[in-house]
Every structure is written in structure tokens, then in C-alpha cells.
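Page 42, continued from yesterday. The earlier attempt failed because a stray header line got pasted into the input along with the sequence. Redoing it now with the clean sequence only.
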Amino acid sequence: MKRFFGCTGVLIVVVFCAVSFSTAGMAHAADAKIGVINMKKVLANSTAGKNAQKVLEKKMNQLRAKFKKDEDALLALQKEIEKKSSAWSDQVKQQKAIEFQKKRRDLGTKQEDANLELKQLREKYLTPILKKLEQVVKAEAKKGGYTVVLPNTAVLYRDKGADMTSIVTNALNKAMKK
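This time it went through. C-alpha cells are written below.
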């Protein structure tokens, strides 16, 4: 019973402190200037982001063309099995089924490898941009007197004056030229 009242006392003190600090913070919240950034738009509209996207799309198209032949061969084998299986012996059916499964596994492995390659390529090109973007956001926030800068996905409503997307995009373009 003593332990229950001891825990309750601690809980009351914690709640009291939390309420005290939150009401003290509300006075400062009125002075806060909040900025909002559409990160996807910054990456899509910045010069560095466009260049990275071109490289990624080129690689993706190369991989798609490469997989198209393998997918077509797999589909052709599947159609052959469906059409001719009734005329084949059990041994031929089994060989074709094994061949089909092997080709399907190989294609799946190649696709996983390609996805990993694309992920690494994305990281290679986007990581430096995102690091520079973080520096640019901090600099622009300080310059504009912003207390907090949030991604637009975390905000339900904002005034158009809070949108820093174009400012940050221009600043990122300048920073990446250096």
C-alpha cells in the first residue's frame, strides 16, 4: 500500500512539472516562426536533384531492358509448357518445370541484385545532396528568423508565407555550385 501511494506521489509531481513547463513554453510559442519545406519538390526542382534523377532513370531503364529479355523468355517457356504439356512424357514435363523454376529464381535474384544496385546508386547521389540540403536549411532558417522548420508531410495546415521550398531550392542550387 505504501508503494502505491509513493508511486502516486511521484506521478503527481511529474504531471505538475509537465503542466508547469508546458504553460511556460506557450508564452514562447507565440514568438516562434515556423517554416515548412516540401523535400520532394526541393529534390525534384534543384539542379543537383535533377542530375541525380537523370542518372537513376538511365540506370533503371538499362536494367528494365535487360530484364525484359529474361521476362519474355520466361513467359515463352510458360506458354510452351501450357500448350505442349499434354503431349509430353512425365519426364519432359518434369524437366521443363525444373527449367521454368530455375529461370524464375534466376530472374528474381537478378531483380533483387538490381534493386540493391539502385539503392546504392541512390544513396551515392542523394546522400551528398541531403547533407548539403541540411546545411542550407539551417542557414536559411537562421537568415529568415525561423525557430522551427518542418517537412510539409508533418503539417496539416500552413500559411503560404511559411513555405520555404523555393528559397531552399535556390539556396541549394547556389551551394551545390561551389
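Notes: The radius of gyration is 29 Å.
Reminder to self: strip header lines before submitting.
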